[in-house]
Write a structure and sequence with these properties.
Aspartate Aminotransferase, domain 1, Aspartate Aminotransferase, domain 2, 2 domains, 4-stranded antiparallel sheet, 11 helices, about 15% strand
Length: about 375
């Protein structure tokens, strides 16, 4: 297993030892539920939760009360739909063809049931969001980086242009891929909502982050223990943010590891040299059609005359893990005229030797 070359960071990152150690330490020495006890373990768990929330807030330029823990980006995106619809009348929602399924499908479902109309964010010839032609909408979903094309979008300018069209537009940023490659400043972007998954940056699966710019302006979408202060008959006294959005027991073990993942990932934020080397070598192979730009954070391509699943099976047999398929991003593949692609994405564990090996393996397959 250790001989496998893992080049699928964009799907899920491998876990640094510090994350594994932190989770094990929490389970062995500090585990208890949060917000539900006054014993030493319960207090330690409360301190861990508050400390992790502070680290996440600092990581994206937010305040702790603006950080809500979820099970991941998909969970957050679906919850945002419900949070927004509970408080606002939404008639038009802008989406784009670089969206991941989890960013767009929840709103597609609302539109299919007649509760809103979808409008498209136009793309340039390079498949970037066209900031000069932002439509008027009540809600705007912005993919900060496509998981197929790997190019960061100008989120700040997109939001500025969106507010020129509609000062009250609600902006929702999918940062699941962006967070693994660039630092986020939510205050600078001035978005209303943003979400990402911890496992994309080396944390455990099952924990995600939902940023809410003005949490007091929105009603909770989930109800239960931990989000209500008192109940008297039919009267409720809902807690303040972030508690009011965190009904039930949180993924505490995963949250305990998240700050260590953030620390390790911030020290890295690299891989450009390895990615560039692989890209340049693949560009010399006639059967390879590269779909990404040279300066993209990931590499996506197709092989002339070979199905992506067949290619995936061949590299897998050679001990390589990478992604093949439509990447849960069907729309952009349709625009490019392909049903799926092969994706290479590197992480802190990858070396130049990995790059040289994958190039040789691919060269042998496509020769």
């Amino acid at each position: 297993m250790n001989k496998i070359i893992y080049l699928d960071a964009a799907a899920s990152a491998l876990k640094p030892q510090t994350v594994i150690d932190a989770e094990r330490d929490f389970l062995e020495n500090s585990y208890a539920n949060t917000g539900r006890g006054v014993c030493a373990r319960a207090m330690a768990a409360d301190e861990m939760l508050a400390g992790s929330r502070k680290v996440v807030a600092e990581f994206i330029g937010a305040k702790p009360n603006q950080i809500v823990f979820t099970s991941g980006t998909t969970d957050a995106m679906n919850r945002i739909v419900n949070i927004v619809r509970l408080s606002r009348d939404v008639k038009t929602v802008a989406v784009s063809d670089i969206d991941h399924h989890s960013a767009r499908m929840p709103w597609e479902n609302i539109a299919r049931n007649g509760f809103a109309e979808l409008v498209k964010l136009p793309l340039t010839d390079n498949f970037d969001i066209d900031v000069e032609n932002i439509p008027n909408a009540d809600v705007m979903v912005i993919t900060a980086m496509s998981n197929v094309l790997g190019m960061p979008q100008d989120v700040k300018k997109i939001i500025e242009r969106a507010r020129q069209q509609n000062p009250n537009v609600i902006t929702i940023v999918d940062a699941a891929q962006f967070v693994a490659h660039s630092l986020i400043d939510v205050a600078n972007w001035n978005c209303d909502f943003l979400c990402f998954s911890g496992h994309k940056i080396g944390s455990d699966t099952g924990v995600g982050v939902m940023y809410i710019k003005s949490p007091d302006d929105w009603s909770p979408d989930k109800f239960g223990g931990g989000m209500v202060q008192t109940i008297s008959g039919n009267d409720w006294n809902i807690d303040v943010a972030p508690n009011k959005f965190e009904a039930g027991t949180l993924p505490l073990t995963q949250i305990a590891g998240l700050p260590f993942a953030i620390s390790a990932w911030r020290e890295w934020l690299g891989g450009a040299d390895i990615t560039s080397y692989i890209y340049n070598e693949l560009s010399k192979m006639p059967r390879i059609k590269l779909l990404t730009k040279e300066n993209a954070k990931i590499i996506s391509f197709v092989v002339d005359g070979m199905h992506v699943l067949d290619f995936g099976a061949l590299v897998g047999a050679a001990g390589v893990c990478l992604r093949v398929g439509n990447m849960c991003a069907s729309w952009i593949h349709g625009l490019m005229g392909v049903s799926g692609s092969v994706r290479i994405s590197v992480g802190p564990w990858n070396t130049m030797a990995d790059a040289e090996n994958i190039v040789n393996i691919i060269r042998g397959i496509v020769k």
